[in-house]
């Protein structure tokens, strides 16, 4: 929804400078949809977009959607989010919990994730 909202006009705006710190609030992350909502708002403010699925998040992490790595992500209430993001996602090396897959993607793209 955030991607297509008339209120959200991210396109054409410059990305935040490299090295920026973003805070992701994990208190309300209960599933993949709420994660994508939360990361969008962490990066681009209320109603912001930063991916709506794993592949779109990967695209956003390449720049042009609000932030370009390297940056730091403080994931607050990460233990609560980890307990809820347990859906198994098939990968080339077997099934992985969504939380772990997201964390791995962030690290591969130069995002330093600080679990808090």
CATH topology: Barnase, Chain D
Binned, the helix content reads 25-40%
Please state the structural category: alpha/beta
Q: Tally the helices: what do you get?
A: 4
- The fraction of residues in strands falls at 15-25%
Report the CATH C-level class: Alpha Beta
Give the end-to-end Cα distance, rounded to a whole number of Å: 28 Å
CATH architecture heading: 2-Layer Sandwich
Number of strand elements: 5
The overall number of domains is 1
Mass-distribution shape: globular
* Lateral arrangement of strands in the main beta sheet: 1-2-5
Q: What name goes with the CATH superfamily? A: Barstar-like
Low-confidence parts lasting 5 or more residues at pLDDT below 50?
none
What integer value in Å does the Rg equal? 13 Å
Descriptive notes:
This protein has one domain: Barstar-like (Barnase, Chain D, 2-Layer Sandwich), CATH 3.30.370.10. 33% of the residues lie in helices and 21% in strands. It has helices at 32-44, 54-60, 78-84, 98-108, and strands spanning 21-25, 71-76, 88-91, 94-97, 111-115. The strands form 2 sheets. It has a 3-stranded parallel sheet. The protein is globular. The model has no long low-confidence stretch (mean pLDDT 91).
Task: Present the secondary structure layout.
Elements: E1 21-25, H1 32-44, H2 54-60, E2 71-76, H3 78-84, E3 88-91, E4 94-97, H4 98-108, E5 111-115
Parallel strand pairs: 1-2, 2-5
Antiparallel strand pairs: 3-4
């Amino acid at each position: 929804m955030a991607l297509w909202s008339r209120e959200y006009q991210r396109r054409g705006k410059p990305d935040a400078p490299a090295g920026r710190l973003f805070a992701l609030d994990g208190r309300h992350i209960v599933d993949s949809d709420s994660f994508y909502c939360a990361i969008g708002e962490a990066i681009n403010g209320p109603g912001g977009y930063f991916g709506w699925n794993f592949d779109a998040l990967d695209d956003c992490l390449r720049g042009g959607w609000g932030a370009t790595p390297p940056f730091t992500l403080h994931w607050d209430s990460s233990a609560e989010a980890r307990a809820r993001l347990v859906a198994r996602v098939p990968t080339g090396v077997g099934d992985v919990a969504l939380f772990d897959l997201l964390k791995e993607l962030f690290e591969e793209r130069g995002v330093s994730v600080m679990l808090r």
